[in-house]
Amino acid sequence: MSRIAITAFSGWNDAGEAATGVIDHLLEVWPSRPAGAVDAEEFIDFQVNRPEIRTTEDSRRVVDWPDTQLRLITPPRGQEIITVCGPEPSLRWKRFCDEVLEQLQILDVSSVVSLGALLADAPHSRPLPTSTLVEPVPAQQVEESSLYEGPVGVPTILARRTAAAGLRTTSMWVQVPHYVSQNTSPKAVLSLLRQVQEHIGAPIPLEELVEDAEAWERGVDELARTDEDIADYVRRLEQAQDAAELPEASGDAIAKEFEQFLRRRREDG
Q1: Closest of 40, 63, 164 to residue 112, by C-alpha
Q2: CA end-to-end span of the chain, whole Å?
Q3: Could you tell me the pTM of the whole model?
Q4: How many other C-beta atoms can be found within 10 angstroms of the C-beta atom of residue 55?
């Protein structure tokens, strides 16, 4: 049976650590083993993503390099999963994506789920909007809803590369409330995992994550109660989302939210 790959990269495309949080959760609930790696030497700026030193259980000192790790997960039933996770490369994106693709093909991967998370004007107290797009192959006409134009990250480049190589590729993105972006967002992780579940045969254990997401939401509620500006802002976001009755973000909405995110980055910079 062919395998499915799930990819996520930390950094610009990983608001609230939601995308990489999905990989972490899958590795926590199901057994896995190493399946490959992309050496960081050619692709990573070590002043941005520094190696780390640690002491092992047998008192040895080792250096962990920020390589992109591929792991083989074996769920209790259904397809085996190859996870691809690491920092977004600083250099040579084309060569990096080709190397990832080559390893996926060797590992008999037939489909890919590409994960990302962006900061947006989404209220924490409502279901966090997600978008799902089956990446078109080069000769296929794209849907109007997917005609975003602007900066992209390596998840988009890799997704286009795998789709062009004939692997069925689905991109999934979640919107993370920008006013609590400094912390990890288990609610955003949960939103993505529920989308990923549709592509995986075995039920993903989510009980602890549901509890974490509820605790996170209560914590943000408490923050809003102590800051009237945030509370008023959240109320306006809730009203806007409720009025739109939008169960999940369309491609146009994602594009607009992304443009707003870029404007905030420029203003903050």
Answers
A1: 164
A2: 49
A3: 0.84
A4: 9
pLDDT tens across 188-243, in order?
A: 999 999 999 999 989 999 999 999 999 999 998 888 888 888 888 888 888 887 77
Q: List, for residues 96-135, the tens digit of each pLDDT value.
A: 999 999 999 999 999 999 999 999 888 888 889 999 999 8
Locus of tokens 């075995």: 202
CA 185/CA 187 separation, integer angstroms: 5
